């Protein structure tokens, strides 16, 4: 897991199916090469605290209304597998290194050790075919 692949909003791009695609993969939102990255309201937040930090975890207004809305969408879309606010709380409390270790442990395939891919409620391993479906 790489710190650069943790979005300012707390989403781990490394486990995203779009990031793991072989053809035309997403490069993560910290890279300004994508239209989505350039227009992301949370990534491009102009609040004073965001000028000093690259994470919503450090904001004095954490969690803001936009982050709460994003969190709700991800909770619904992934069946509770991805919770950006919870991710940011861990980063805020324990630091990015501990968060990254936890993510690696959480998203490593129990069958082969490859990093799992999350697409909605589906969690798959491209190496061995292991599949988990959220409840």
Structural overview:
The structure is a single chain. The protein has helices at residues 17-20, 35-39, 65-77, 84-94, 96-106, and strands at 117-119, 122-124, 131-133. It is globular, with a radius of gyration of 15 Å. It contains five helices and three strands; from the N terminus they run αααααβββ. Helix 4 (84-94) crosses helix 5 (96-106). The protein is mainly α. The two termini are 25 Å apart. A hairpin with a 6-residue loop joins strand 2 and strand 3. The model has no long low-confidence stretch (mean pLDDT 86).
Number of helical regions: 5
Q: Helical amount among residues, as a percent range?
A: 25-40%
* Class from secondary-structure proportions: mainly alpha
Strand order of the largest sheet: 1-2-3
SSE sequence, one letter per element:
HHHHHEEE
Shape: globular
Could you tell me the mean pLDDT?
Answer: 86
Low-confidence stretches: none
Q: What value does the Rg take, in angstroms?
A: 15 Å
Strand content: 5-15%
- Give the tally of β-strands: 3
Largest sheet: 3 strands, antiparallel
What is the end-to-end distance?
25 Å
